[in-house]
C-alpha cells in the first residue's frame, strides 16, 4: 500500500490538445447544491479567513462561501442573507449549543441553503446524531456538508447518514497540529485521501470537498482532477488586504496577518487537547475578490491545458505520480 500513497507535489497532470482560441473562453463554474458558483473554491470557514462582510462580498460576486461558527450570531446572519436574497451558508458544531441554534432557526422560519457540520473528527456518533436531527427536523432541501474525515469508511458512513457533501482532510493544513500531536490524519497524503474518498462514495450525487494541504492554485486543479467537487483553502485567503486576521508588524519590519487553526488555544480558549496553532502569514497585496479572480484565471488556464472548454474536462485528465 505504501507505494501508492502520494500528495499534490508528487502529481504531474498530462496536457491535451488545446481547443480554445483564448483561455478566457474557459468556463470554471460549478453546480453545487441548488446554486452555481464561479469557481470550485471556498475560503476556509475559519474566523481568521472569513467574516460576515466577506461572506456578503463573495456571495454577491457569485462565489461559494461558508460562514464560520465562532463568536457569531448565526440566526441574525441567516436573516440578513435572506433579506439580501443571497445564498445562505453556515457552520455549526455538534454540541448542545448547535442544536439550540438550529431550533431557533426553525422557530423564526429561517432555513439555510447550506449547513456545514464542522468538527475535527467527523466520523463520529455525534456527527451521525446531528445529521439525523437536521434531516428529521429541517427542510429536506438543505445541503449538508459534513466533516472532516480522511478514510473510505468515514465517507461511506457520512453518506449513509445523509450528508450531501463530505469534507476530506484531517491534519493537512499548515495551522493544524493534529498529525504532530496524534500521528493520525492525511498530512503528506492529502491527494491520496481525496482519491480514496472519491472512489469510496456510492452515490454519484455525493460531493467530495478537498480540505487542507493546498499550497498552490495547481493543487486546486489536481483536487478537481482527483474527483473533488469543491476545494477549501485557508492559507491563501488568510493574509489578504481585507481578510479578518489582525495585522501585526514583525520584528523584521514586515507586515503580517495572524492565521490560526480552529482547534488552536487562541480559537478555543482552552489549555488542553489543543490541535492547532497560531502563526503569522506575510501580508498579501490582493483583496479576497482579487484572489478569487486570480484563481479563476489559473483554473481557466488549466482547462485549456486539459483540452476542454469547461471544468468537466478536468475529470478525465490523466496524471503521473513521481515517487521519491
Structural notes for this entry:
This protein has 324 residues and is of the alpha/beta class. The protein has a single domain, classed as Alpha-Beta Barrel (TIM Barrel), CATH 3.20.20. Helices cover 31% and strands 18% of the residues. The protein has ten helices and 14 strands. A seven-stranded parallel sheet has the order 4-10-9-8-7-6-5. It has a three-stranded antiparallel sheet with strand order 11-12-13. α5 (152-161) packs across α7 and α8 crosses α10 (288-305). The radius of gyration is 19 Å and the shape is globular. The two termini are 15 Å apart.
CATH hierarchy: architecture: Alpha-Beta Barrel
Using the coordinates above, name the CATH class.
Alpha Beta
Report the average pLDDT across residues.
92
Structural class: alpha/beta
What is the quaternary state of this protein? single chain
Strand content: 15-25%
Helix and strand pattern: EEEEHHEHEHEHEHHEHEEEHEHE
The domain tally reads 1
| Number of DSSP E strands | 14
